[in-house]
Fold these 3 entries.
Entry 1:
Amino acid sequence: MTDLRETAPPTAPVSTHLGRTAAAAGLAVALWASAFVAIRGIGHALSPAPLALLRLGVAAATLTVLAVARRSVRVRLSRTAFLLIAAYAVLWLAGYTVALNAGEQHVDAGTAALLVNLAPLLVAVAAGKFLGEPFSRSLIAGSLVALGGTAIIAAGATAQRDWAGVLLCLLAAVLYAAGVMVQKVTLRHVDGFTAIWLGCVVATAVLLPWAPQLVGELRVASGGAVLGAVYLGVFPTAIGFTAWAYALRRMDAGRLSAVTYAVPAVSVLLSWLLLAEIPTAYGLVGGALCLAGVALSRRR
């Protein structure tokens, strides 16, 4: 049986591995930030579940081509490994994607990114409790501050009757956090590429009941919307999640998740430049509190 674990050459310097891990995490952050804007831009053309199906189907096809090109990949998974892959595929790849798609039909890309940005704090708390990762009082204090910021964002969105979008984005954050926790355990049994590849295949299969609706919507969708969905599948999903899995295998879940705190800032900038969307005053104040809470939570 082929060993699917990724191991670094024993002679490579530690700084090289750290640099590659940081680069992978940075790539994932940049691509995920762009995903919020892309979803907002094409959400009017494709419904949440069909869009998720197309995105994950494209990602699964892309990764399958790469897997065949690698040739050395032989998939022989234990029952435990497969069940873990299936669990995080349903929670994160399928569930999170559908919830986020639905949420962005009600709130702008920047606000959605700020709300989903609660996930790293949830991961840090869960990782400390269940995986034995470092857990401190500053994490608790930062979590409370960030929750206060989320409450302000929610208050502003509710005043504009966008409470459904707030709840959907918060649901996406919970699914995101749960998916990261399961994926961290999964990577003890299988390498990152295989995990995300098979995860996309499983998630696509889960969403197949929406295939007829997707076919109907594609008939009337613009070329730009279809290209946007393909972009989501190839870059934020196939490449972004593979880069994330590479970094997650080499870092604590809580510590790595803190890197994604940069996602809202990049998303707000991109949504302003590409969609002319600027978060409300509630969103900006609440977002500032969320980031302050994040900074507090990371203090040693």
Entry 2:
Amino acid sequence: MFATGSGRLYGGDSGSSFAGGFNSADGVIAVELTMSRHNHDPKYVPMFDVDPVDLRFTGVPRGEEIHFEGESAALPGVRFNTILTRINDSDAPPPGEVGADGISNGLYSIHIRMLDGIDAGNTGVMMLQDGSIRGGDAFFDYIGAYSSANGRWKGEIVNREHTPSRGERPVFGGHEVGIGFSGTYDGDGAEGEATALVGKRSIRFKAVLRKLVEVAD
């Protein structure tokens, strides 16, 4: 989840994206989000049958975490808990240079397919903002930077496991992975080829990004 100084929230996981806002008063944080599915693979089982679905949460900080309880008018009688833990991005690379016609700030879905005969892939979301990358999925978070101009972009990402994948993502699971990429973009999204260094192994993959929400702030 990516929080802006103006009170907007953008985020997601391997199957859905989240966009909405928050405010804080008397130590209580109130959140309203719309959850929309971006992964339409028939093998993927979504959390809810309703799509999109509006969600409401209230939460309080507890140490390094924020604990929320939520509900939705579209799901009567269903309540759920959510815990947010801040991601350490102190070692993220500095933002890259973005030209006047560079790739637009926004929340993007990312769909990855391995190359060179490796039968594996992944999906998640990625926030692009002024040359910086923040993103993640059900098991990994991504921090990085990019430069873009004249329909071309390139950058670097560090992929880190925040929740044990237990073999569900056998290529990156258990590793902190450095990734370099380059490719093209337009008004709807971007694509590129990347090389990931997994231990001593070099793995190539193709990534396709689709813009879900444009971000102005």
Entry 3:
Amino acid sequence: MTIRIERDGKVATVIHSRIEARNAMDPDSAEALTAAFSELDADPETGAIVFWGEGGAFCAGWDLKYAQAFTDAERFRTEIVEGLAFPHGGGPAPRGPMGPSRLEMGKPVIAAIEGPAVAGGMELALWCDVRIMAQDAYFGVYCRRWGIPLIDGGTVRLPRLVGQGRALEIIMTGRKVAADEALRIGLCETVVPRGEARAAAEAMAQQIVRFPQGAMLADRRNAIAGHGLGVREALAREWAGAVETIVKEGAAGAGRFSGGKGRGGDFEDI
């Protein structure tokens, strides 16, 4: 079983375990990974999700042992061009080549990155809400060497995180982006000592699930949905998405504050 889920209260950790291949993706793992994230997104007992590669590698990209699909014209047409194409007229997209890269998750997903997150593995990390990297972890569009383009959202998400010019330089050169640079340019949010990425991601997830969930999820949705909108439209979307939550959760929270909780910016006693 290359994909498994481990739980601690409302936090679930999705583990990709193809250690012998540095967690490079194969078709079965891509299917199982998509199913795992879909299951957790629909699970009312799950509040936040951590994504971790076991054995010291997040994901080394697509397993090139399966690349014969790219050289067999008929197989490429049926499995890739047709099998993974976006449907005409809208509707849910099929999984991405790397698995869950096209899922629009309703819950926070935190990537815990040890070792390489390269090529399609980098794209999976970009799909997550937050990236926590070990000091020796790294990104890179390593598929540049083989003439394989980014097809799991890399050209969409990387410019949104680091800006177009820097994204193009990283994409076109295929160079290694170490954790310290990733932190500096906004490609990750936290760098931790080697071997501690999973624990740090799970600690962040536990912090997130402590809060009233309606308001947190509304803010997450609005931050994501507002990207690229005009200011007025984004403000209107924010307002519409927040009013109901204020009624449901905000009044109760204000009451707790009036009763002495959370004074002075205290996040512990809430």
